[in-house]
Design brief:
The protein has 406 residues and is an alpha+beta fold. The protein has helices spanning 21-27, 29-32, 54-74, 81-93, 115-129, 135-141, 148-154, 160-173, 182-187, 203-221, 224-245, 254-260, 266-271, 273-279, 284-294, 300-311, 326-340, 380-383, 389-393; strands spanning 4-9, 13-18, 189-192, 195-199, 316-320, 351-359, 369-371, 377-379, 395-403. Strands 3-4-7-8 form a four-stranded mixed beta sheet. Strands 5-9-6 form a three-stranded antiparallel beta sheet. Strands 1-2 form a two-stranded antiparallel sheet. The longest helix has 22 residues, at 224-245. The protein is globular, with a radius of gyration of 23 Å.
Length: 406
């Protein structure tokens, strides 16, 4: 009997998954749920090729983790077999708590519950089913294990999660400028004083990685059309939620119905077992199936927004360098009210005002250390000859005004 399962991946080729605990995780229904959730949410409205799933990303991150373990061991970094299996298990499950369309559900149908917290709940559930086989993986995931560099492989500025999604998202969107040298970066990883570092020979790959990450955020993840399309989805869900709170009947799949008809915050989610069970049934299909039926709903706002989503009638976007005044937004809302024939209050669903902020590198965060030949380490901002520290650390803010087209 073969001791591993081979899965063909368009980005990394063949990915080998050992039989036993790791293959059992891959086969688990909560991991298989990720096959029904797109990695980039609604970004396919701009990049039609962006149809890849969170399951594919999880496999890719697992593959890179396997490569990193081999590379570090070759450099004399001692990693027990049990630790290796644990961090492979943890990276396989790191995105398990994501809902449909990435972060759209957070603070829309559910308040104050981050997907990382839900991931841990799901890991605990699988761990009980597997009689404690994931104890070590969960300990490392929560950064409670003595070897901190193992956690950094899962969650840090240079974790396997980021290395995969930048490479994979670049591949499927066709944004070739986003391609990073993940193999080179992994080969240059080392450990000093229980911290993950990059050998000096890999500094150019890190410079490219940081520049690429900034490019991918503004060109793909925060593309103005994607942002505008996501705001339609947020607003249609908020409108549906408001209508259900008024006692109006709205079609929804059973899992989505639960979140529309209950007021769910963190305390509710934790104290009601059925909340997690319904969340585990939610995927992209629940949203699309429900939105399609809302196109014919008697509520004008709900039907308009549903048609926008289905028929790709995307909000118009204005990007401003300075915050928008209340007078400006009120004037737009009044125009929308008149054109749509709805009340001024209801017209707020036909627009969205947001501040989008992203920095390229936060030196106060879990920073990237460069290891010199003499054994000393310094931050990438000090070691790099071409990266401007002020530019690297600069927080870029843009103000998006999105509103219904008529």
């Amino acid at each position: 009997m073969n001791d591993s399962k081979i899965i063909s991946d368009p980005v990394f080729g063949f990915i080998k998954i050992p039989r036993g605990l790791l293959l059992d995780i891959v086969k688990h229904p909560l991991i298989q749920r990720l096959t029904r959730i797109k990695q980039l949410g609604l970004a396919s409205v701009v990049y039609p090729g962006a149809q890849h799933t969170r399951f594919q990303h999880s496999l890719g991150a697992f593959h890179l983790m396997s490569e990193a373990i081999v590379s570090l061991r070759q450099k004399g970094i001692f990693i027990f077999d049990s630790e290796a299996e644990a961090i492979q298990a943890a990276i396989l499950m790191h995105d398990i708590g994501h809902g449909p369309f990435s972060h759209v559900l957070e603070n829309t149908l559910i308040r104050d519950v981050a997907h990382e917290e839900i991931s841990l709940m799901m890991m605990d559930q699988i761990n009980k089913e597997m009689k404690g086989a994931l104890n070590l993986a969960i300990s490392i995931f929560k950064d409670e294990y003595p070897k901190r560099f193992l956690h950094q492989l899962i969650s840090s500025q240079l974790d396997m999660d980021r290395l995969d999604y930048l490479r994979r998202d670049s591949f499927f969107t066709g944004v070739t400028e986003g391609n990073i040298g993940s193999a080179r970066i992994i080969k240059m990883l080392n450990v000093v004083d229980d911290n993950l570092v990059v050998e000096y020979k890999g500094i150019y790959s890190i410079e490219n990685y940081l520049t690429t990450r900034r490019l991918m955020y503004w060109q793909v993840y925060l593309h103005k059309t994607t942002v505008a399309y996501e705001k339609i989805l947020v607003n249609v869900l908020l409108r549906a939620k408001e209508l259900t709170s008024q006692g109006k009947e709205i079609f929804a799949t059973p899992a989505l119905h639960y979140f529309l008809y209950n007021d769910i915050d963190r305390d509710f989610f934790i104290s009601h077992e059925e909340a997690l069970l319904n969340y585990e049934l939610l995927d992209d299909n629940d949203i699309w199936s429900s939105v399609k039926s809302w196109m014919n709903h008697e509520d004008k706002i709900l039907s308009t927004l549903a048609k926008d989503l289905i028929n790709r009638n995307i909000f118009k976007v204005e990007i401003h360098e300075d915050p928008l005044s209340k007078d400006k937004t009120a004037a737009i809302q009044q125009q929308l009210s008149e054109k749509a024939g709805v009340s001024f209050e209801d017209a707020r669903y036909l627009m969205s005002v947001n501040t989008i902020q992203k920095d390229m590198y936060n030196i106060n965060d879990d920073h990237i250390s460069i290891l010199h030949k003499d054994g000393t380490t310094e931050d990438i901002t000090e070691a790099s000859e071409i990266l401007n520290v002020a530019l690297l650390s600069k927080q870029i803010q843009k103000y998006y005004l999105c509103y219904q087209r008529f």
